[in-house]
Amino acid sequence: MDIPDKDLLSPGHRGCAGCGASIAVKLALNALGENTVAISATGCLEVMTTPYPETAWEVPFIHVAFENSGAVASGVEAALRIQGKDDVNVVAFGGDGGTVDIGLQSLSGAMERGHNLTYICYDNEAYMNTGIQRSGATPFGATTTTSPKGVASFGEDKPKKDMPMIMAAHGIPYVATASIAYPEDFVNKVKKAAAVKGPAYIHLQQPCTTGWGFDSSRTIELGRLAVETGSWILYEIENGEFKITFTPEERKPVTEYLSQQKRFRHLEEEQISKIQKFVDAQCAELGL
Amino acid sequence: MTKEIMTANKAVAEAARLAKPKVIPVYPITPQTTISEYLAQYVADEKIDANYVKVESEHSAISAAVGASCAGVRVFTATSSQGLMLMHEILFAAAGMRAPFVLADANRAISAPLNIWNDQQDSIAQRDAGWLQIYVENAQEALDTTLMAYKVSENPKVLLPSMVCLDGFILTHTVEPVEIPDQEPVDEFLPPYKPEHAYLDPKDPMSIGNLADPDYYLEARHDMQVAMENSIDVIQETCDEFAEIFGRKYGLVEPYKTEDADIIFVAMGSICSTIRVIVNQLRDQGEKVGLLKIRAYRPFPVEAIDEAVKDCQKLAVVDKNVTFGIGGALYTDVKAKIHKEAYGFIAGLGGRDITPEAILEMYEKTKNPVKEVTWIGLKEE
Fold first, then answer.
1. A42, A62, A115: which to substitute to probe chain B, counting the most B Cβ within 10 Å?
2. How many helices (H) and strands (E) does chain B have?
3. N or C: which end of chain A has fewer CB within 10 A?
4. A35, A39, A48, A68: best to mutate for the B interface, most B CBs within 10 A
């Protein structure tokens, strides 16, 4: 994989040590290059990279609010295209909260209208910026501050919203899942997304050291375990054609992934076997 | 120049066409809808070279407007009532990000109860957003004000968005003769938009919409206050320049028979036409009465109001809105800033007709006051 000399997301931002979001954005911008305009929803990414008068962004950047990055990106794209700037990449970043929850309508509109832009959801599976509250992307069994373990609760009691498939249902030319632990796969997908005419959506799993509860040196390792256990499946849907882009040699049991994280450490055998069944069913459905 | 019979909604759409916006994100809502329809047709017929963004909500309309404006182009949008309420959050962001675009608001009441008819509660509820708000009386003024709004908003001393407020149905769906200026003088008055500051250009990357901590936030908001103060002169200069080219004179306020008046009505929007008739009628009966039409509500033109009302005894302030627990918004502003005996009248909410009798009643209740704020036209029992 080519690693450029200059990162377009500068170091020295205020992300946590081991932050997966900054790795994600750095990889994405390296894939897109300097001729790019970036949009971000409110969230960790925006807060840690743009404390006035500083900015970590080496490409033009705009943030407006939490739930509207799809619409802001639409406006940016419409304005660039009418000025004849057809070659400028437009990329929007939203966390899972800003994407699958509060920003869903705005994003759906942007996808349906066919803007030539790429939306990347950096999914750390809860509202991390405000201190680990559950989102629609929080997986079954995870504890968060709003889906805590208690006498009558084992944590989040609903499975994760299947956002990539919701995006695929929009009939857009490119949808993919990705993981920061598979940078080559992710970078290829970002390049494909930028190359297609029309909207593209990439759902990137991004382990969060703070919210998931693991040592900050192990971010990539956790991302890899998610994929190796089938808890996160790497695929793409190009013009309606579904393809798995990475198949682990041997799928590991989910406990190897769950046991490494504080958010799952309370789970009983019953819930773990339920999660294993979810994962098995998902892998069977997608052909992993 | 051509003259046509049209609604104020069409007049606004014509102004938008003449202003040559490059992006038009808009979502239909009664009674704004025909603006969005006219503009869609103009784009379809290549009368405007713009991207018409068919957004899925007003929230996305205003969000796309901010994005497009920050990407360096002139932007137009329009809405009404619940739509403006849905935009509320992003109205503040648009002003804070100093995006100088124009929004036409077809003034309509707000739920609940659900009501599609006219009052001015929707835009009044946005008065603290940092937008300039200009209220118009007729279709011609709607067209002219929309053009002027761009010039004021884009002035480097201002760089705040403008809201042109036109009364729903009373103006938006009523036809009047309107002069449509030719493109050439409009281009002279309003040259193509060239962003001087923030815009999204990969050749000159900058970050817009950053986080500002307590060390910086206060100054950013104070800059908006300074811009709002600057806009007073800019609006007047822009009106003067407009009058030179197009021959129609406007200002921050519009006094009518105020010089020798003892009582002056203070009002905004289409109701001023009815009040003017009553002023004439009362003048015929020997009453010394006048009208001060407020065009600029934000910025609030204190000096211009002071000048117009300096010799009168009392003010009768008409509000098509209410700020519960205190009175109408225009009335409370007048009470705060203008040192005159003033009485407030809340009328016309949800489209209740403000009749000539209602205006005469306001006059009587200002001449012989019983209380400070009176709701006019309430049904008995």
1. A62
2. 12, 16
3. N
4. A68
The number of C-beta contacts closer than 8 angstroms across A and B is 160
Structure tokens that stand for A224 in this block: 């890899």
* AA identity, residue B298: R
SS (H, E, C) A11-59: CCCCCCCCCHHHHHHHHHHHHHCCCEEEEECCCHHHHHHCECCCCCECC
In angstroms, the Cα distances linking B10 to B13, B26, B170, B259 are 5, 15, 13, 35
- Which of the 8 DSSP states describes residue B211? B
> How many other CB atoms are found less than 10 A from the CB of residue B245?
12
Whether A250 contacts A229, CB under 8 Å: no
**Angstrom distance (rounded) from CA A143 to CA B64:** 36
Q: How confident is the model at residue B198 (pLDDT cuts 50, 70, 90)?
A: confident
Could you give phi then psi for residue B110, rounded to 5 degrees?
A: -115, 145
Burial of A197 (C-beta count, 10 Å sphere; 0-12/13-18/19+): exposed
| Crossing angle for the helix pair A20-32 and A183-195, to the nearest 10 degrees | 50
The 8-class DSSP code of residue A9 comes to B
Rounded Cα distance between B144 and A10, Å, is 47
Query: Residues with Cβ < 8 Å from A90, sequence gap 6 or more?
Result: A36, A37, A39, A73, A76, A77, A80, A115, A116, A117, A118
Nearest-by-CA chain A residue for B77:
A75
- How much is the mean pLDDT over chain A? 97
Q: What is the pLDDT of residues B81-106, one digit of tens each?
A: 999 999 999 999 999 999 999 999 99
B86 at the A interface (CB within 8 A)? no
DSSP lists the bridge partners of residue B106 as: B166
B324 pLDDT above the threshold of 70: yes
A141 near A123, Cβ under 8 Å?
A: no
Task: Tell me if chain A has a CB within 8 Å of the CB of B48.
Answer: no
Interface contact flag, A60 B49, Cβ < 8 Å: no
The rounded distance, in Å, linking the Cα atoms of B319 and B328 is 5
ipTM: 0.96
